[in-house]
Design a protein that fits this description.
globular, alpha/beta, Rossmann fold, 12 helices, 336 residues, four-stranded mixed sheet, 2 domains
Length: 336
């Protein structure tokens, strides 16, 4: 898990538990630790680290979700190679790998993994690919010696199945919830355009972004909130700086954890974002509202976007217009 879970063995076990990955369910011991061993060095002398339990094993099977990364582009992004180098590198390995920045990550990531693979018996990789509806659509078993040659092809397939907002631009993007359970960046910037790294671009373009909440399975990790312009007090009350800051210190990207304007309620957060739009007709504001970046099957849009929806072959209008619904505390009820 690299630096996730606050970079502690207890925190990483807690994350596993929250997903139902327990010793009772798996029928075997789970060893969670942050101790690493040195596996060698890169050509420039940087030390390569690897999880102590894995290094002492007779054989290692790498299991990982293959998908586009949120901070760089290359033949290997989020996937098996990253799991070898960063996931099993634990915090120490992840920190070592990130120190040169994301501009050279595409070269450093496979180089780091190669050092490990030359010294560790990685017998197989299990690549999991999901479709645009957060459903597993392909599971690929790859021999250990074929991971480096096969993963780039699996990454291209995964990118072809990525979710997206089929409206390229709006004035306001409203996001119901973010969290590490949805994306390493809380909300996948490949979808929302909220990149923390200058090494990536794309996604939905907008003038303002509002985040209403942080999912409980994120365990207080608020990575991604820094890319919003406005948030709510209920989201702010969930912030765990230790969980987020360790991630930020390791990745070297700090702005993803900055705190945006905090408003008391959802209604006030939306109003604040609307108030600060510039060059926009207040009677025709283009608003896109999504639940999270893994739940894009149904979204909501304002009336100003209806013509664009009708013209898109990828979108279907399934409901008529209606005002947002708020409870007595001013919190949004739609897409809850």
């Amino acid at each position: 898990m690299g630096s996730h879970g606050g970079a502690t063995a207890e925190g990483q076990r807690e994350i596993l538990d929250s997903f139902g990955i327990t010793e009772e369910f798996c029928g075997c011991p789970i060893h969670s630790g942050m101790e690493t061993v040195e596996m060698g060095h890169l050509e420039n002398g940087d030390t390569v680290y690897f999880d102590k339990y894995a290094a002492e094993s007779d054989a290692v099977i790498i299991v990982g979700r293959i998908k586009a990364h949120t901070a760089f582009r290359g033949p290997y992004e989020s996937g098996l190679v990253k799991m070898i180098a960063i996931g099993l590198g634990k915090q120490k390995g992840a920190d070592s790998l990130h120190q040169k920045g994301f501009s050279v990550f595409a070269e450093r990531l496979p180089a780091y993994a190669k050092v490990i693979m030359e010294r560790c018996n990685i017998v197989m990789g299990v690549g999991i690919i999901e479709n645009a509806f957060d459903e597993t659509c392909r599971v690929e078993f790859v021999n250990g010696e074929d991971i480096l040659s096969e993963e780039p092809k699996l990454l291209e397939y995964a990118k072809s199945r990525m979710p997206q907002i089929f409206i390229p631009e709006s004035d306001l993007l409203l996001v119901r919830e973010i969290g590490k359970n949805f994306s390493g960046c809380g909300m996948d910037p490949n979808v929302t355009g909220t990149f923390g790294s200058p090494c990536c671009s794309g996604g939905h373009q907008k003038q303002r972004t509002v985040v209403l909440d942080i999912h409980e399975k994120s365990h207080g990790n608020f990575i991604g909130l820094g890319e919003a312009d406005v948030t709510t007090m209920r989201a702010y009350d969930k912030l765990d700086t230790n969980a987020a800051y360790m991630n930020m210190l390791t990745s070297t990207i700090l702005k993803v954890g900055k705190v945006p304007m905090v408003m008391e309620t959802d209604r006030m957060a939306i109003q604040a974002a609307l108030k600060t739009l510039t060059g926009v007709d207040p009677d025709h504001v283009r608003v896109v509202y999504i639940k999270n970046t893994l739940a894009l099957g149904t979204i909501m849009v304002s009336e100003a976007l209806l013509e664009e929806v009708a013209a898109s072959p990828n979108l279907e209008l399934v409901g008529g217009g209606a005002p947002f619904r708020f409870d007595e505390e001013g919190n949004l009820l739609d897409l809850a």
